[in-house]
């Protein structure tokens, strides 16, 4: 399975990790970076993982909250607040649109990435 990240998703990840480092320190940044990578690996599976939900306002767009993989791989992130926004434009491709904080207006932010 292939995976591509939009420019918006790449920017979101960099900004999230910078914020994590500034607010919680380099160890927390490293843990969150591993959590994001675990989330990316999880959504790249042939089927949508447990916890995935469809974004009704945008057909074909799926949301996966990082809390669903926080306990895997020895990760200790108590309360992850981000979700991966993605779609599967081809059977063997996952295209990540955004990494968004769960308090954001998801619909408006998805429109920015498309």
Regarding CATH, which class? Alpha Beta
**Cα distance, first to last residue?**
22 Å
Helix tally equals: 3
Q: Would you identify the CATH architecture?
A: 2-Layer Sandwich
Number of strands: 5
User: What's the story with the biggest beta sheet?
Assistant: 5 strands, mixed
Rg result: 13 Å
Q: Please provide the ordered H/E string of secondary-structure elements.
A: EHHEEEEH
What is the helix content? 25-40%
For this structure, what is the CATH homologous superfamily?
A: RelE-like
Question: Which class of secondary structure composition applies to the elements?
Answer: alpha+beta
Shape: globular
Total domain count: 1
For the biggest β-sheet, the strand order reads 1-5-4-3-2
- Taking pLDDT < 50 over at least 5 consecutive residues as the criterion, the unreliable ranges are none
pLDDT averaged residue by residue: 88
Annotated CATH topology: YaeB-like fold
Q: What portion of the residues fall into strands of 2 or more residues?
A: 25-35%
